[in-house]
Each structure stands twice: as structure tokens, then as C-alpha cells.
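Possible race condition, two jobs.
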Amino acid sequence: MTTYDPAREGAEMSFDGRMSYGDYLQIDRILDAQRLLTGAHDEMLFIIQHQTSELWMRLALHELDAARAAIAADRAPEAFKMLARISRIFEQLNSAWDVLRTMTPSDYTTFREGLGQSSGFQSWQYRLIEYAVGNRNLAMLKPHAHRPDLTAKLEAELARPSLYDEALRHLARAGLPVPADVLNRDLRQAWVANDAVRAVWEQVYRDPARYWQAYELAEKLVDFEDYFRRWRFNHVTTVERVIGLKRGTGGTGGVSYLRRMLEVELFPELWHLRTSL
């Protein structure tokens, strides 16, 4: 049997002083970032699951920024692909919980004390995603107060129109009757369900052929929130499976805190209108 040699077909095999796969992706830095504090076997799983989730969140923020800019420039069709990609990113984030759920309560107790006060709710990228799409809870700035650089990032986001704000401004520029007080609202405040906005979206859904672009934008937003809700639900289920109803490492109520987050609606009018159609 002849040994296969890729070089015979032109594959590059020498990388002395040249860019390799590992160089481009900085693999050494990534693989050196798993620093176990306890030596427990399942701590590696816990660290990698959360690190990879943060990488997916970074990509989600990259796509969110681009989608928001496209909508603000009335290039909504460009945003549709980005919004669809964000939904797929959250599908990947959902799948990550399946891996973490292989860790039993007994496994977790072997390294839980090593976490100190660290907790997932302190993720500044997750907070930035929530702020970017419109869930602007100012109380959640506090966990980042010790890092002026992170506080500055979050404050800069709060000063910008959210993804949902830009979607509504886009509808207004297209001639739909979005109320002026909605368009001129205090951007730092969390979105509150608005009957007039629901009526605008309902107008779109009652005549999709006439308002096809707005209709497609609405469904892309619903797709994203659908996956986002699943991610939150899977988070609750995983935490309850691993720690039961114990308080979280960061001091939250754990499962009770996460269940409360399930009640948050990012784009409430797009869900409420379905009842009245």
C-alpha cells in the first residue's frame, strides 16, 4: 500500500517563516487560555463551554452591529442575512448546553468553590447583546463598574438606538405611522410594549404583499428572539439539573433569577399581534 503524500498534489508542507493555519488563528493563544484552578476533571468542560460561548457572542455582536447599520441606512435586505446568521449562532449556543448537561451535580461540586464569585450573568458581551437588541436594564451596569473600559462600552451602547429602535425608524421612513414619541424616546430606557407600535406591525401582517420588506424584517426579528428564548430556557434547565435551587455563585437566586429572565420580551409587539390577527 502506497503512503499518501499531499505534497505530491501541491499541498504546502513547509511553513518556516510563512503563515500557517495555527498562526492565522492564533491557536496557541486560544489553547493556552484554559487555566484550571482546581484540577477537577470537569472544570475543563466548564471553562471551554463558556469560552466558546463568548466567542460565538463576539460574532453575534459583529453581526448585530452590521445588521443595525444596514437597517439604519434603509438597506434592510442586507440585514436579513446577518439576522439569519445571528439566529444560527444562537442555535450553536443552544447546542453547547447539551454538552454541559453531561456534567452531574457531583461533578460540579468538585470545582464549584474555585469559581469564587464569578457567574455567567457577569458576561459583559451578553449584556452588550441585550442592550443592543433593546433590553436595557441600567441596574446591570453595576457588575462592570470595576472595569471603566467595559462600562464605557456599555454606556456607548446605551447611547445608540437599539436594533428594535432602528427597525421602527426604518418603518417610519417607509411611511408607516410609527408614533413620534416612540421615535424620540429616551434610548437608555428599556423598551415598554406599545399598543400603537403593535398596530403598526399588525398593519404589516394584514397585508404582507404590500409591506413585504417590513414583513420579512419582522419575521427575522421573531426568529432571533425565538432562538434567544430557547437559549434562556436551556440555561435554566441546565442550571436546575446541575445545582437544583441553590443560590448561584455570583449571588443571584440561580434558577429563580433565570426563570424571571424568561419573562422578558425583546420585541413584544411582534408576539402580541398574533393574538389579534
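Job #2 (started ~2 s after job #1):
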Amino acid sequence: MTAQTTTAWPTNVFARYLTVAGSSLGRDDLAVDLTHRLTIHNPPEPFATLATCTGCQATEEVGHWRSRFAFPGAMEEVHDPETADKRAREWAQEHAETCRAMPRPEAAR
């Protein structure tokens, strides 16, 4: 077993799931990172939760807005970041449990 290396999480990452490759190599930088996608407004506001794998670059984006039926039969938009975070966490966990990809190494100069 290799020694565990600890790297600082990138800015804005609020959750990290270690991939199979990262776990087997003792590298915590091979992970699925969760961040919030922000609007360009001032101040910026989250509109989606994004899960990104640092090994294979797979992503999953889950929007914070949901459409639901409102009385009487009309649709309304509801801001629901908790559900988006939950769905992104589920995807990240499932992906991390199976991903063995490694990022391409930098070319030697």
C-alpha cells in the first residue's frame, strides 16, 4: 500500500468522493468534486450542482430549479438546491466507486 498524499481541495469544492484509482494509489486528488455553478449576477447565485471526475473528466450537472404543478393546473418554478445536491452526491458516489481512470500525465520537457 502506498502512503496517502493530502492535497488541498480546489476552490469552491464543497464535497469530494475518492475514486477507486485514487484509493488504490493513495492519491486523494483522484476524486469526484462537487461545486456549485454560479450565475453572472452580482452577487452570483448558484443555479446548479456540478460533479466532475478528476480522473476521466466525466461530469453530471443537476439544476437547482424544478417545475411543479400549482393550483389550478398551472406550472411553477421552485428553487430546490437540496435535491440537486443530493442527486449530484448520489451520482458522484456511484461514479467514484467504479472509476479507475487516471489523468493524462504532463509531457516531460
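The mean pLDDT is 87.
Logs attached separately.
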